[in-house]
Every structure is written in structure tokens, then in C-alpha cells.
Amino acid sequence: MSSPASVPNGRKVGLLFGSFNPIHTGHLILAHFMATHTDLEEVWLVVSPQSPFKVGRELLPEQGRLRMVEAAIAGNDRLRALDVEFGMPKPSYTIDTLDELRRRYPSYRFVLLMGEDNLPGLPRWKEADRILAENEVYVYPRPGVASTDVQMHPGIQVVTAPLLDISATFIRDCVRAGKSIRYLVPEPVEQQIQAAGYWRT
Ligand SMILES: Nc1ncnc2c1ncn2[C@@H]1O[C@H](COP(=O)(O)OP(=O)(O)OP(=O)(O)O)[C@@H](O)[C@H]1O
Ligand SMILES: O=C(O)c1ccc[n+]([C@@H]2O[C@H](COP(=O)([O-])O)[C@@H](O)[C@H]2O)c1
């Protein structure tokens, strides 16, 4: 895990949990926007080995996904990649990781970040009530998502930001179809996908 030592005590850090299968320009714009247009000092991208809602779905090995995240954010000192969930039980429950990060970094204030598509399912997350009681949640809007009552929770803020109709599903489909993914993912990520033959073999 990269060192988070640059965040002074008590400052706010955003946590973007995801499968990142693969990381794409939508994730990067979301993360950088949150790190620069809100009160957050940094955003950490937490690579989840196994989302509880994606059990049984095709997922690249976690190390490969982490390498792509690291390559994508290289040189951006407001973004960090975290592999904290790699050593934790699977599936990856966010409340357990939040507890672990609080143990490791007791003076930091963490804010949960997510795309709007995750909001309707949030009440079904493990200990959803505790997640919402203990954490602020900043939500990035996502196209095609119907509004939900969860959004009315006082701890949840939907930011005003450009909509990005990009998904990892679309990128995997493009790769399988032999179509270009240039600019949908950063160049080093495109190179890793090509070199490893992800979704082609
Ligand atoms: N284009 C986007 N706009 C807003 N939020 C996004 C976007 N893409 C991903 N996110 C958010 O980033 C987080 C991690 O997403 P994830 O890694 O599952 O990517 P995904 O593109 O949704 O993947 P898949 O298509 O495989 O379901 C989630 O909170 C998701 O809502
Ligand atoms: O904690 C939970 O119950 C929970 C339920 C669904 C999703 N999550 C986390 O949310 C992140 C995005 O999930 P997904 O399914 O949109 O890829 C990922 O890191 C998951 O581990 C967490």
C-alpha cells in the first residue's frame, strides 16, 4: 500500500471503493474531481478483491487490477491506490474496511465516495445504518440512475459534476470486440490490457 503520510492529521480523505475491472477515465475524473472540487485533501482508490454484489462475475486477479490503478494515477499526488482489502475476508465488506482504516489512521476523517448507481443498493450493504451514521458520503452523478430516497439522508451529498457515461463493462465489451479503448482508459492501462491479453484470451 502506498504511504498516506502526506495527509496531515485531522484532514479529510475520500475513499473510492471499487472493482476497477479495469479502472477507466470515469473513475479518474470522479476521483480527481472529488479531490479538487470538494473539501477533501486526497482520494484513495481502494481496490476490492470481491464486491459482495458481484460474486461470480468475471473479475481479473486483484493484483492485475491494482497494477492498472497504480499506473493510471501515477504522478497525481492527490490520488493513492490501496490494497488494504487484499488481506481481508472476502467478499469485501466496506464497513469492515472502514473500521480497519480507522484503526490504522485514527486521526484522519474519511468520507465514502461512490457513483450514483450505488445509492439504490446502499441500504442492503452490510451495516448500512452504521455506515451512514459514521460517515459522510459524497456521490458523483451517473447517467441513467433513477433518484432514490437514500439520497435524502442528511449525510449524503450529491455533487454537481459532468456526467460520464463510461463503465468498465463497456470497456471489457470493446476489448472483446476488438474495438479501440483509447481515451476511455489512460494509455498505460490500455498497454497493460493489451500486453496481458485481458478479455481476449
Ligand atoms: N462513469 C461513472 N460515473 C460515476 N461513477 C462511476 C462511474 N464509473 C464508476 N463509478 C463509480 O466508481 C465506483 C467503482 O465502480 P466499479 O469499479 O464497479 O466500476 P463500473 O464501471 O461501475 O464497473 P462495471 O461496469 O464492471 O460494473 C462505484 O462507486 C461506481 O458507482
Ligand atoms: O459492504 C457491502 O455490503 C458492499 C455491498 C456492495 C458493494 N460494496 C463495495 O462497493 C464497491 C463498488 O461495488 P460494485 O458492486 O459497484 O463494484 C466495491 O468496493 C464493493 O466492495 C460493498
Automatic annotation (TrEMBL):
GO molecular function annotation: nucleotidyltransferase activity
Domain Cytidyltransferase-like residue range list: 16-172
NCBIfam families with a match to the protein in the record: cyt_tran_rel, nicotinate (nicotinamide) nucleotide adenylyltransferase
SUPFAM superfamilies for the chain: Nucleotidylyl transferase
Record keywords: ATP-binding, NAD, Nucleotide-binding, Nucleotidyltransferase, Pyridine nucleotide biosynthesis, Transferase
UniProt pathway: Cofactor biosynthesis; NAD(+) biosynthesis; deamido-NAD(+) from nicotinate D-ribonucleotide: step 1/1
The organism's place on the tree of life at top rank: Bacteria
Name of the featured protein: Probable nicotinate-nucleotide adenylyltransferase
Signal sequence interval, chain numbering: none
Reaction catalysed by this enzyme: nicotinate beta-D-ribonucleotide + ATP + H(+) = deamido-NAD(+) + diphosphate
Function: Catalyzes the reversible adenylation of nicotinate mononucleotide (NaMN) to nicotinic acid adenine dinucleotide (NaAD).
Uppermost EC category: transferase
